[in-house]
Every structure is written in C-alpha cells, then in structure tokens.
Amino acid sequence: MCGIVGYTGTREAAPILLDGLSRLEYRGYDSAGLAIRNGTELARVVKATGKLKNLAEKTDNGRSLPGTCGIGHTRWATHGEPNQTNAHPHVSGNARRSASGPVESDVVGVHNGIIENFEELKQKLLNNGYQFYSGTDTEVVIKLVDYYYKKYKIGPVDAINRMMVRVKGSYALVLMFRDYPGEIYAARKDSPMIIGVTGEESFAASDVPAILKYTRTVYYMGNLECARMIPGSVTFYDLNGDEVQKDTTEITWDAESAEKGGFEHFMIKEIHEQPKAMHDTLNSIIRDGRIDLSGAELTDEILQKTSQVYIVACGSAWHAGMAGQYVIEDLAELPVRVELASEFRYRKLLLEKDALVIVISQSGETADSLAALRIAREKGIRTLAVVNVVGSTIAREADHVLYTLAGPEIAVATTKAYCAQLAAMYCLALQMALVRGRLDPERYTAMIEELLTIPDKIEKVLEDKGRIQWFSSKFANAQDVFFIGRGLDYAISLEGSLKMKEVSYIHSESYAAGELKHGTISLVEDNTLVIGVLTQNDLIEKTTSNMTECKARGAYLMGLTSYGNYSIEDVADFTIYVPKTDSHFVGSLAVVPLQLLGYYTGVARGLDVDKPRNLAKSVTVE
Ligand code: M6R
Question: What's the pLDDT tens digit per position in 289-306?
Fold first, then answer.
C-alpha cells in the first residue's frame, strides 16, 4: 500500500525521489519521508505528515538535501498512528534525532507491508539493548537487520537474508547501510518491488509510474529475493546468498498516461479514458470477429471441460466479477460463484476439480486476491488472472493471464480498469457460451459486433456529463444515497454506490431492489435520494415498483435506463438515459453516469477525489 522509491546515480536524488513519490501517492498519503546520502556522509532523514507537498515544502523541493543516493516513502499507516515519528524512513539507531539532521545509524530503510511477528522480534531486540522510538513494525525489521549485521559481522545481503528467514508477513524493503555509500539494498516478500537500471543510474520502486519517466526496462523482484544496487547496475540474490540471473521486462505504458493531461483530476481523466480502455482490451482479444484467448493459453477444450467457475476479487474488481457472473450464467449456462477474496481464503470451500478460479485485480498485488489464488493453486484448481498491471504477482503466479489494457490507473477509485475488466468478462462469457454450444455462431458474431460498438457508446454517455454535474451539486449535501437494481443492474448499482462513498464520503448502500423492503426501507425518509438502475427490460417493471415504494416514503428518485424506456419518467424525478445495446453489455454504459455522479459529488464537496481519506490504491496487506 505504501509507496517506495530508491535512487542511486549521478544526479541529485531528492528531487527524483519526490517526483517518483508524487506518482505513487495513490498508494498512501498520510505522511512521507526521505533519507539522502551525500557521498560518505551520514544519511539525512526528513519526514512530514500529510500529503507529499508538505515534505516537498520542508525540503525546498529536495534542494535542501544534497546527495546522489537516497530512499523515499509515502505511507498508508498499518502499525502506529500517522504522525511524523511513525513516518518512514526508519533508522537502526536508538536515539531520537533532530528534525532533519544526519542520523547516527548503520541502517536506514523504508517498508511496505506488515510484519506479523513484530512484537516477538521487538522483545528479542529489547533484550539485546535496542530501544524503539516509534510504534511501527518497520522500525523493528530495520533494527533486526542491524542486529544480524553486527552480531555476525556479515555484509548487507547476508544480514537481510537472515532477517527474511526470521520475519513473518509481507514486505518490500529498501535499505541503505552507512558502510556502503552509494549502494541501495532491496528485499521483498509478497509486496511488489521493481528495479530499473539505465546508464549510470539505478532505481527501486513499488510501482511502475514512479520510474517510468527514467526507464521502461525493469526487473521484477521475486519473493524472498534481495537486490544490491549501485549506480547503473543491480545484482539479485536468493536466500542462500547465491546470485540470481533475471530477465528484464519492457513496460509499454507511455509516460503521458500517468499524467493528468489537462484534466483537473486523474479520476475524471480516467473516466474519459474508458472508451480507449475498452477498445484496447477488446481488440487485444477479438481477432477477425472472433474471440481469441490463445494469448491466455485458454483453449476451447479447457473451457468445455470447466464445470464450475469461481470468481474471486476485492472491491470494484469483485463488482466486475458480479457482472461477469450474470453474463456467464446467462450466456454459457455455466454455474458461477462470486467470492470476496478475503472470505474465500478462509472458507473451506469444496472446489470442484474441473473448476476454473478467475481472480480479477487491477493491481495484481491485492493481498487477499493473491492469497486466494495461491489456495486455489495448492488445491490443484486451474486459475485465470484478469489483471491490468503487467508482470504483477497475481499475473505471474496464475496458470493463465488475460490482461486488461486500461493503462496505468492513478486515481484511487477505479473507473477505467473496472471498465476493462467488464470487457474481459464479456469476452470470456461469449467464448464459453460458443464452445459449450449455448450460443449459435450467428448470434455470437452479432454479439461481438455489438460489443465492439460499446466504446463509441461510452463516448456518447460522456457527452451528457453536464446534467450529471448539475444533479450532483443539487445532492452534494445528501446524508444517505441508496442504489437499487435487479440482476445485472444490481451488480452495476454496487459499483455506483462504492464510487459515491469512496470519493464523496456520503453514506451510500446498494440493494438488490427486491430486498429493500426487508429492512433497509426504514431508512428512507423525505428527500432521501434513491437511484434505480433499470436497464434489464425483463426486470424494469419490478424495480420501478420498488422505486414507487420508496417514493411513497418521501424519496427523491433518480432513474438510470436506456433510451426508449421513457415511461420511467412517470415515476422518477430525474432520469438519465444511456444508448441502447445488448442487455448483457449495457452495464458498461450505465456505470459511467454513476462514476460521474460520485466524482462530481466529491468535487462539489471540495474533497480530494483522487486520494480519498483512509484508502490506498493497492491493498497489499490483509
Ligand atoms: O487492484 P485490485 O483490483 O485487486 O483492487 C481491488 C480493490 O481494492 C479496488 O477495486 C478498490 O475497491 C477500489 N478503491 C475501488 O475503487
């Protein structure tokens, strides 16, 4: 969740690290810090609470910290409250230091992840004379490296390896050692870490956007590996301290896609990038009017043999899975269960041997989704990852990978990655339906043709954003919002509701429309906003009745439907229309006004929509 950047090279490190951190701020933003070394001088550490701009101001945009080697961190607190003491970097020394002076420490480091046995390790270190100044697990792990380094009089790689054997949990660590100026060491287990090397410079980062400006050629660190970086070179080691040879991966994302490009926020930019995300994803899978899953090595035979599908994911990816469930069940007549990854991993599900477990994830690093994937693999069940970030852990560990081509998504609230996930699920459903003989070839072809029109239809929906902006300002002070729908409309409501609460902080709930009267309707009172999603023709009447029940209790009704369903206006106080399309794909259109509604409501309330409080883009802890 936290963002990490490291640099060693020929240029001033601090401005490069601040720039890299600014591109990772979506990973955490309750405090930030830098440790910079100037030649053989001791590292100087500066930290600030709140957004990264506070750290930039405190260091005069890095100018007050000269030196060509350094590490930086932007934090999403797990252990210890978000204050300056708990901010990273942390040091192995015992004494409290002045605000930005040099630190008398042999090891200084930054960390992303959770050290599960940190209490036990802390006690061991206390018994050995260490003192602790923070409430973090990170300080413990850095002092543990220091302990082994001194006790056994070994080098950094061996000390880190000893730490890795002892520590339980997940981590990406970047460290500097006082005796090794110009060198940076990295270690990882279950938290992402990439290394980029170009010319006379080396970079470490927890995510690609941090270093995209400098290099597109990266190494992905493996689990329980350690790396030693010097300017322009990196060496990887395994737990035995033996060198590991690695290939580089070329990142194809262009640097502009990680910039705001004239938009006020990343979220609205990414909402507008959905036609492209969908177009690119569809066109990577559809060739000559047919779905081609050979890139994911998913043969017709595998799909024919599949007896049950489990879709496992978190948050919005889980919502995409919900939509996928309705489409696969309806088109392919294949049983599907959609599971929250955090539940799946601890349930003793009896998985069928011919099942396919589909893990959906934008980041490919979500801890619960990764754990679920590993459980399925341990049980010998075939796994398919639907992932956006190339080379991410989930992508690397799954049996099959279907990449969504949404490009880098920076706003914490997902929009275009979710849109691309829907595209991938439609393609899977259509191909499953064809090879299982549930869809005749003519209808299959016609549905693919219709699917390819969706990107243009999303453009049409975006043209209507002015009305949604107006409506958002009208309800910006709402206390509660309820989203209701049935079937696929319910899946889309779930996503609309999450967008609303994530970025506007207004309490919102999504209910299967028929379920409302079993309790939740007691919350509806005068002027409560109830948003009905009504795109499934066979269910419109039913949901309309549920909306009428709310209206009778004083609710203000917004209807979201396709052009042609004008009778909704007899019930709804405000109606938004999306273009007509096949009912299986209409969710890709209906979700757009709901994303805009969340976005504009957050903006109207003056909130930081790209970095909502308490959230992180990539949830790499349990
Ligand atoms: O990277 P992932 O797709 O695995 O992330 C899953 C969720 O954490 C993510 O969708 C989250 O719910 C977003 N904040 C939603 O906007």
Answer: 999 999 999 999 999 999
Mutate to test the pocket of ligand 1, among 363, 368, 595 (most ligand atoms within 8 A of CB): 363
pLDDT of 471-502, one tens digit each?
Answer: 999 999 999 999 999 999 999 999 999 999 99
Ligand 1 pocket check for 341: Cβ under 6 Å: no
Cβ(561)–Cβ(544) below 8 Å: no
Closest CA to 269 of 280, 279, 278, 258: 258
H or E, element range at 543: helix 540-551
* Ligand 1 geometric centre to CA of 617 (Å): 7
CATH 3.30.70.2750 fits domain 258-452: no
Contacts of 248 (CB under 8 A, 6+ apart): 217, 218, 219
Backbone phi and psi for residue 35, each to the nearest 5 degrees, phi listed first: -130, 125
Is the model's pTM score more than 0.90?
no
Average pLDDT, the chain: 92
Return left, alpha or beta for 297; rule: phi > 0 is left, psi -120 to 50 is alpha, else beta.
Answer: left
Cβ of 207 closer than 6 Å to ligand 1, yes or no, is no
Domain residue spans of the chain: 3-251, 258-452, 463-610
Distance in angstroms (rounded) separating the CA atoms of residues 89 and 86? 9
